[in-house]
């Protein structure tokens, strides 16, 4: 099987004039979750347990105690009302357990509150004066509403409950002769509704801000971080985990650790059995990374868990290599500038000899060798000079769909590729932060490299893109229908000067990964087939690109 080689020197991509651009804000999650997350569902589950328990207690009181002892005027209506409230609590609990809810979070909370107020009002009406303290049961529901929504909508919920329950007591005080005591009692309880919602909302904002800070810190860590509960279920992770383990698309919250990585599950089990047992580093076959696992106990009791750190032991070696390569790049750049002067003279002399026909026909082959090797030296010099340009990026907001389509058309025209041989499936609404020239160089390298080894037919090269699982990244993938990359070449594919193709410099893919790293992105080879499968993970933004 042929080994993949690096492309030759690329035509200089067309670059827009450099203009100062405003810094794009980092992607920030909305204050109110657009979907019901696992933590939100857990809070709703606790509130539903409380609601069903209240209904069960009230129903038990109605069935087991004498109505006369409680001064209940309509015992049968009281039993019916408490039974309906209990059924509502059980139905709400079952509804929240569904995988997908038909309504957004704000509508779910309001629907639950309407049910609470309606059935609680029925219980209060049937209980007479004895039911005056029952509005106190709504405090947990309103606290959850303020905590989860963290907006003025929580105060609307408190106002809705206040108007209904206070209006009910006022009607009973005026027409039923219940007196003013229950009315004032309900009024003080309703005043507490607003205080509860305000305190819960502020607390929810503080916790949300703290979670966002923690999330940003964890996402920027070089180590992989996993949060595993007592049952071995993954409750959270950062993007470095999937990068280090090479399992993009498989990791998700609520997944068992053993399903994702049997090795990590074994380490987690052994560490829980004996904290003192030393755990040796292990090598990941798909990414060829040597990882050391460090585990820390968090929480206690039923709320406890384990924090797992995955440290890439090859990172220090890679950083040392980067320092050496940077020094080498500066040295070779100074030499390269000196080489280009005599190289230009050689090219010019060869061109003059060809134009003057001063070379015998037998020497034409030698003259061709001079021209070809001069071009190869010029290509090598040009790629070496690119090693020093990785830190000169000018990031800007780029509409990825439009950019990829434009690049594919440009590459197809330059490489004489038929229309339809390169298929781009990139949504138009994906925006990334990247240096336009660097991204052009990366895409050109990958596409040209794929074209040299694919079957050169319709759909031979496919480029796709989608949002990352954490919401702050864009995952762009390129795969071809070629023979793929041999296992022995995967570990050295991105190393400088590695090539098996005659005439190749071995710098194409190395430069592509360096440019990606300089822009905060990640370029890697995935263990997928058939053909080669590259993945480029870019930073996402919500800011619109600046208009020319």
Notes on the structure:
With 548 residues, the protein is an alpha+beta fold. 52% of the residues lie in helices and 13% in strands. It has a five-stranded antiparallel beta sheet. β4 (289-298) and β5 (305-312) form a beta hairpin. The chain is elongated and about 125 Å long. The protein starts with 37 loop residues before the first helix and ends in a 9-residue tail after the last strand. Mean pLDDT is 78; it is low at 1-34.
Strand order of the largest sheet: 2-1-5-4-3
Assign a percent range to the helix content.
Answer: 40-55%
Question: Which percent range describes the beta-strand content?
Answer: 5-15%
* SSE ordering: HHHHHHEEHHHEEEHHEHEEHEEHHEE
Mean pLDDT: 78
Report the count of strand segments.
Answer: 12
Shape: elongated
Radius of gyration: 34 Å
In DSSP terms, counting alpha (H) and pi (I) runs of 4 or more, how many helices?
15
Give a short account of the largest sheet: 5 strands, antiparallel
Low-pLDDT windows of residues: 1-34
Helix and strand content put the structural class at alpha+beta
The rounded distance between the terminal residues' Cα atoms is 47 Å
């Amino acid at each position: 099987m042929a080994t993949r080689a690096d492309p030759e020197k690329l035509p200089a991509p067309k670059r827009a004039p450099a203009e100062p651009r405003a810094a794009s804000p980092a992607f920030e999650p909305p204050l109110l979750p657009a979907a019901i997350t696992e933590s939100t569902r857990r809070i709703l589950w606790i509130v539903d347990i409380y609601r069903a328990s209240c209904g069960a207690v009230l129903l038990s009181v109605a069935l087991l105690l004498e109505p006369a002892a409680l001064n209940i005027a309509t015992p049968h209506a009281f039993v019916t009302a408490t039974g309906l409230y209990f059924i509502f609590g059980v139905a709400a609990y079952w509804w929240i357990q569904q995988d997908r809810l038909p309504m957004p979070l704000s509508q779910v909370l309001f629907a639950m509150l309407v049910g609470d107020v309606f059935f609680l009002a029925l219980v209060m009406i049937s209980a007479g004066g004895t039911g005056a303290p029952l509005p106190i049961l709504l405090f947990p529901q309103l606290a959850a509403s303020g905590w989860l929504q963290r907006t003025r909508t929580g105060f609307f919920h408190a106002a809705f409950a206040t108007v209904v329950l206070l209006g009910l007591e006022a009607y009973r005080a005026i027409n039923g002769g219940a007196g003013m005591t229950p009315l004032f009692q309900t009024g003080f309880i309703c005043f507490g509704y607003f205080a509860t919602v305000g305190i819960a909302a502020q607390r929810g904002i503080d916790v949300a801000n703290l979670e966002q800070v923690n999330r940003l810190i964890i996402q920027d860590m070089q180590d992989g971080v996993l949060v595993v509960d007592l049952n071995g279920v993954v409750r959270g992770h950062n993007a470095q985990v999937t990068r280090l383990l090479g399992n993009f698309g498989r990791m998700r919250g609520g997944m068992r650790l053993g399903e994702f990585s049997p090795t990590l599950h074994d380490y987690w089990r052994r560490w829980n059995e004996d904290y003192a047992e030393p755990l040796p580093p292990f090598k990941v076959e798909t990414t060829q990374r040597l990882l050391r696992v460090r585990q820390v106990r968090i929480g206690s009791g039923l709320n406890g868990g384990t924090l797992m750190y995955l440290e890439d032991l090859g990172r220090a070696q890679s950083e040392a290599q980067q320092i050496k390569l940077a020094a080498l790049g500066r040295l070779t750049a100074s030499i390269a500038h000196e080489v280009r002067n005599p190289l230009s003279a050689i090219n010019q002399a060869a061109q003059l000899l060809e134009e003057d026909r001063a070379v015998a026909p037998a020497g034409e082959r030698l003259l061709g060798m001079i021209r070809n090797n001069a071009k190869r030296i010029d290509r090598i010099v040009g790629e070496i000079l690119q090693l020093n340009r990785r830190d000169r990026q000018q990031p800007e907001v780029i509409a990825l769909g439009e950019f990829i389509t434009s690049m594919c058309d440009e590459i197809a025209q330059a490489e004489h590729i038929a229309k339809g041989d390169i298929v781009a499936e990139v949504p138009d609404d994906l925006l990334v932060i990247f240096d336009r020239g660097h991204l052009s160089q990366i895409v050109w390298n990958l596409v040209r490299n794929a074209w040299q080894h694919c079957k050169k037919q319709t759909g031979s090269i496919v480029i796709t893109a989608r949002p990352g699982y954490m919401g702050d990244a864009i995952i762009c993938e390129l795969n071809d229908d070629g023979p793929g990359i041999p296992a022995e070449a995967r570990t050295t594919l991105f190393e400088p000067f590695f090539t098996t193709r005659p005439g190749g410099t071995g710098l194409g893919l190395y430069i592509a990964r360096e440019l990606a790293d300089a822009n905060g992105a990640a370029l890697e080879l995935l263990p997928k087939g058939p053909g080669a499968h590259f993945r480029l993970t870019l930073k996402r933004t919500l800011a619109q690109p600046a208009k020319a």
